[in-house]
Design goal:
Distance between the termini: 13 Å
Number of strands: 7
CATH topology: Endonuclease, Chain A
Number of helices: 4
CATH superfamily: Endonuclease Chain A
CATH class: Alpha Beta
Length: 139
């Protein structure tokens, strides 16, 4: 069985920065409906040190081109923009890192904005797991 922990958190920024320390050399994928330059600045070191970082962000009136440019140009993140049809909204908040047989994820209500990452009380779940290799018997 994989070694897994699941916990409810209300300090998204602290959990992400702890994941950076616990999983050095990880790759990082994340989706967020909303992104801002102040949110990117909070994770800039984390994004720049990841050997590979990719994101899908929503195209909406709240997101500014400067945030997309900061991700791409200053943090070396591959940026993909999701364009919705009329009357629909792209609104996920998923952060996922992996390295070899270890992985972590944060899923919940934390947009890639300063408010989304640093406001207490935003409902978010954090998961870490380690893959165990070897033969498994059937009982």
């Amino acid at each position: 069985m994989p070694d897994t922990t699941i916990s409810a958190i209300d300090k998204s920024l602290e959990v992400l920065l702890q994941a950076e320390r616990d999983f050095p050399g990880y790759s990082l994928d994340f989706c967020s409906g909303y992104v801002s330059t102040d949110g990117v600045l909070l994770l800039k070191r984390m994004l720049k040190t990841a050997p590979k970082a990719r994101t899908i962000v929503g195209l909406n009136v709240s997101n500014r081109v400067s945030a997309f440019q900061m991700l791409r140009d200053d943090c070396n993140v591959e940026v993909y923009v999701y364009v919705t049809s009329i009357y629909t909204l792209f609104h996920p908040k998923i952060y996922f890192g992996k390295m070899n047989a270890q992985a972590w994820a944060m899923v919940g209500s934390s947009n890639l904005t300063k408010r989304g990452l640093s406001t207490r009380g935003i409902a978010t779940q954090a998961v870490t797991c380690r893959k165990v290799t070897g033969k498994m018997g059937i009982m």
